[in-house]
Amino acid sequence: MSDVQASLRAHDTFPKLLLRNAVTFGDRPAFREKDYGIWQSWTWAEMSAEIRAFACGLAALGVGRGDRIAIIGQNRPQLYWSFDAIQCIGGVPVPLYADSVADEMAYVLEHAEVRMAICEDQEQVDKVLSVMDRLPVLETVIHKDRRGMRHYRQPFLHALDDVQDRGRDHDRRHAGFFEGEVAKGKGGDVAIIAYTSGTTGNPKGVMLSFDNLTTSCRLAVEMEGLTEREEILAYLPLAWVGDHFFSYGQHHVAGFTVNCPESSDTVMMDLRDIGPTSFIAPPAIFEGFLTQIQIRMEDASRVKQRLYRYFTGVARRCGPAILDGRPVSAGDRLLYALGELLIYGPLKNNLGLSRMRIAYTGGAPLGEDVFSFYRSMGINLKQLYGQTESSAYVCIQRNGGVKPDTVGPPAPGVDVRITDEGEVIYKSPGAFVGYFKNDEATRETLDDEGWVHTGDAGIIDDDGHLKVIDRAKDVGRLNDGTLFAPQYIENKLKFFPYVKEAVAHGVDRDYATAFVNIDLEAVSNWAEKRGISYTNYTDLASRAEVYDLVRGCIEQVNAALAGDSALAGSQIRRFLVLHKELDADDGELTRTRKVRRRIIAERYKPMIDALYSDAGNVSVETQVTFEDGRTGTMRADLDISPAATYGAGGEPSARAA
Length: 657
What we know:
The longest helix has 23 residues, at 302-324. This protein is of the alpha/beta class and 657 residues long. The chain contains 22 helices and 28 strands. The protein starts with a helix and ends in a 15-residue tail after the last strand. The strands form 8 sheets. Strands 4-3-5-6-7 form a 5-stranded parallel beta sheet, with helices on both faces. Strands 2-1-11-10 form a 4-stranded mixed beta sheet. Strands 12-13-14-15 form a 4-stranded mixed beta sheet, sandwiched between helices. It is 40% helix and 21% strand. The chain has 3 domains: 17-185, ANL, N-terminal domain (Rossmann fold, 3-Layer(aba) Sandwich); 281-471, ANL, N-terminal domain (Rossmann fold, 3-Layer(aba) Sandwich), CATH 3.40.50; 476-642, GMP Synthetase, Chain A, domain 3 (2-Layer Sandwich), CATH 3.30.300.30.
């Protein structure tokens, strides 16, 4: 056996990697957290000691091998350490989305047969307690923060630091227990049960082994050349497999520093504080950054606006080529350098991206226009493609070989194919063990030969890059046979700062239509400059001026679609602006902000039918969920507006009725 193979076998679980890092990187910072405006740090050695105490405390409370333990909260060092502590003694972590309502949590807690829940604070404890009568297996609740918990007297409630104190006593009385439990762990053991976002129904519990995660993380770390000197910001949901891959898996493999923001409201400020070298964000984050830039430029002086427009034009022309090391004329290089000094550098510094070596986006497609904007500014943004079932690891774009319309070639160790039906399938070291308590769904997704069926429609281009078109079940055709890919159209619309969300319709219809959610910050800023008064989101969204603004965005997308012979017939002819934002609390989006098309199709059927009629408006009544959990009803009259479509030569057609 080679030294490399021996090392891999010796460190085939995250707890074993933790103990290795406590020795190898003992004095280097492993975690930082901003608390009351001050960054607090823990070295690898200090973190290992905290985890050891917590693991022994869990054992003292009766946690055994195979027990499922829920983790609920925001990005806090102690909650990341909970994964290690649970795994050290053979338990299986089950992370939940912190913004889930109690009923959503109840489903996962019950389905996973969770024995114990580790909660961040009083809010999460209250949600668990409110559904505890439906959870006969749940015995114990641990809370990290003591704030607000003084008058809670339930005997099954424990403060995390009290559990650690109990663990230190357990450790003293049982010499060798901790090391023995860590040694029992094997690469084939289930490391985590990560629940899917549930776009089509109840979420499924994806069982990922240590081998799945550690092998995938090692291959990605080697490919990107990540070291212990990287700095990342951990702000994405703990329950999302992408965050687990980067902020936990690669953190253990490479030994770099993870930084936790003070709160979700301070992420932008904390991002500027840290200046991470590696960064991952879903499309919504990068779309939000671009919206902020565009809003600020609207407020800038005319001179600055002209400079911005000129140098972004230079960047679009030669920025990606410079980033990829391709030949560029001396004149363009000089102009680009001047643009870096005047525009690109200050923009990146303002966003906290000045030190960025690698940035990723994943979880959903990012529009080509948005993607190209960042790369033109010199940010090495790359798209990756994966699923919860793949440990987030299937395709990764390579440095110097990035194409805006693909997600790159298969990642190291991965094989990707397209079936005769056009579905993307893959074999990967990260391919999941199976769905928890759902053998039928496992057989439907993971076939006997080890191929995972993604449910995505895609093609592989001549360079071996995968291009994901849409979810296979969502791609369809209009009645005239025109290809209709709703997500592709929606992403083009979301490039505009005024459009926060869009839902396109058209399968088995005569033409395409759309719902649009305006971006309140961007549109309110636009309205203020034009003296347009309004009272709330619904009032602003209904204004004729806003409809004209949105129509302009749609017609630009239609003009772009006209140049694609396969999609020209799917231009949007009629649209309406929704009276409320699509909301995960209302079941319209997943917790990762993916559209639940079936829910929207059922809930908004009268509105969809109206788009395909001669009606100029439609009355709607919608149930909404307020922040305190109460529900109510919103009523509104929505206008339905036509949009111009375009011929192949770019000439506008008459607007639909």
